[in-house]
Design goal:
Blueprint: E1 2-6, H1 10-21, E2 25-29, H2 33-40, H3 51-60, E3 64-67, E4 76-79, H4 94-105, E5 112-115, H5 123-133, E6 139-142, H6 152-157, E7 161-165, H7 169-178, H8 180-184, E8 188-192, H9 194-225, H10 229-237, H11 258-271, H12 277-301, E9 308-312, H13 327-335, E10 341-345, E11 359-361, H14 364-368, E12 373-376, H15 381-384, H16 388-393, E13 401-404, H17 411-416, E14 420-423
Parallel strand pairs: 1-2, 1-4, 2-3, 4-5, 5-6, 7-8, 9-10, 9-12, 10-11, 12-13, 13-14
Helix pairs in contact: 1-3, 9-11, 9-12, 12-13
The structure holds uridine-5'-diphosphate-glucuronic acid.
Uridine-5'-diphosphate-glucuronic acid (UGA) is lined by residues 118, 145-149, 205, 208, 212, 246-248, 250, 253-255, 257-258, 261, 316-317, 327.
Length: 431
């Protein structure tokens, strides 16, 4: 099939490459000419495992193209533009409607418009009405994405389910055909109405975020009662009704999706005058988490003034260079209120644009030099491979304190190497 994807951001780009891998011919459009020119040259504007290799491969095969202008030859048009949060939590849909306006200016062979962008329930209905008012004959369907940054292409090709929302049998058939290679491999295809499909997306993210907020609160409790949070998570998560994923303790959840999507779902509850005690608590729980973790760091290091803190991990999680809404940055912001020097290191974030100053080092050793403590904020595999024993032997740090906010280091080894090691949720190391 011939597909047009509007939006070359995270979702649009991964979806474009994913559909090309599935055998379709994809044209991805973005108004950002710089980005399009990069992509045309086979350069990915984002770091995502395996993405650039596939980008080049399918560009060369002629199955993938990029442009800043609309064409009129596709069978289906996907809208995959951003839906950022407005100050009040509701989603800003202006990029969706401006993309639709641009589409309408161009004659098109396509009759099916698929909304891939994450939108509040009811948006597809609004879009349909908008199109009708403009005299357009486009049919509209919802098809949310479930792509985790850092594993996005894998998630596209190995989904737990494909969800589509449409009221027309003909659109359902087209989308079923589009995803046939995945469906034939046994992927569940859930076809429902647009409002439900939209809600599946927001509710999935909200549920996962709830699991994280819960384990983080249990971690606080563990510190008081002397239980081990990692074993506790294992004990809970191995009940298959609960599931072991998204029960990893950490400094709070972040990124461009969870905080925004929970706020948007909460806004929908409010607009419909339905009370959500759960979402309200998850939002509050996560917000206070960053501050709490900062206070724990302060209580371990003591007076922060004139201290040098090595800080590992700036992205919102491992395997991405994305630091939007990163818990690491939120904690750094609190730390920066003191007269401290932050020497940060991240395997992929090599420069940052923040409203406070930090040093960003190009290698971890240079970040550790003369530090009074090391804070690990992101679960990059590289950090657990570091030979901390030799760091200690070479007296690289001034004080051998490690505060592990992702519980990724081997505690026994680290303690044996002479460090004071603090991890989340363990009473003997009360933070
Ligand atoms: C999330 C969802 O997982 C995807 O399914 C969804 O498609 C995507 O949002 C989206 O809406 O586009 P993403 O934000 O890329 O994906 O990253 P996650 O892996 O979900 O992590 C979100 C945050 O939760 C990160 O800060 C991460 O460190 C944190 N987290 C995750 C934990 O603290 N503990 C965990 O056990 C898991």
């Amino acid at each position: 099939m011939k597909i047009t994807i509007v939006g070359a951001g995270y979702v649009g780009l991964v979806t474009s490459i994913g559909f090309a891998i599935l055998g379709h011919e994809v044209n991805c459009i973005d108004v950002d000419k710089k980005k399009i020119s990069m992509l045309k040259n086979g350069k990915s504007p984002i770091y995502e495992i395996g993405l650039e290799e596939k980008l080049l491969q399918f560009l060369n095969k002629g199955k993938l193209s990029f442009s800043s202008k609309f064409n009129n030859v596709s069978d289906i048009i996907f809208i995959a533009v951003g839906t950022p949060s407005l100050g009040n939590g509701s989603a800003n849909l202006k990029f969706i409607f401006s993309a639709i306006d641009s589409l309408l200016k161009h004659p098109s062979n396509s009759r099916l418009l698929v909304i891939k962008s994450t939108v509040p329930t009811g948006t597809n209905r609004k879009i349909r009405q908008y199109l009708l008012d403009k005299g357009s004959k486009y049919k509209v369907a919802s098809n949310p994405e479930f792509l985790k940054e850092g594993a996005a292409l894998f998630d596209f090709l190995n989904p737990d389910r494909i969800v589509i929302g449409t009221n027309e049998k003909s659109s359902e058939k087209v989308l079923e055909q589009l995803y046939k290679p995945l469906i034939s491999n046994g992927t569940l295809f859930i076809s429902t109405d647009p409002a439900t499909s939209e809600l599946v997306k927001h509710s999935s993210n909200a549920f996962l975020a709830t699991k994280i907020a819960f384990i983080n609160e249990l971690s606080d409790l563990s510190e008081k009662v002397g239980s081990n949070i990692d074993d506790l998570a294992k004990g809970i998560g191995t009940d298959h009704r609960i599931g072991k994923e998204f029960l990893k303790v950490g400094p709070g959840f972040g990124g461009s999706c969870f905080p925004k999507d929970i706020a948007a779902l909460y806004d929908t509850f409010k607009k419909q005058k339905v009370k959500s005690f759960i979402l309200e608590s998850v939002i509050t729980s996560n917000k206070q988490r960053f501050f709490k973790v900062y206070k724990q760091i302060e209580s371990i290091i003591g007076n922060l003034d004139k201290k040098r803190i090595a800080f590992f991990g700036l992205s919102f999680k491992a395997n991405t260079d994305d630091y939007r809404e990163s818990p690491a940055i939120k904690i750094l912001k609190y730390l920066s209120q003191h007269d401290v020097t932050i020497s940060a290191y991240d395997p992929k974030v090599k420069k940052v644009n923040l409203d406070f100053d930090i040093e960003v080092h190009q290698n971890y050793k240079s970040a550790l030099r003369n530090a009074n403590a090391l804070v690990i904020a992101t679960e990059w595999e590289e950090f657990s491979q570091i030979d901390f024993n030799s760091i200690q032997k070479n007296n690289l740090m001034n004080d051998n304190i490690i505060i592990d906010l992702r519980n990724i280091l081997d505690e026994e080894k680290i303690v044996r190497s002479g460090y004071s090691y603090y991890k989340l949720g363990k009473v003997k190391n009360v933070l």
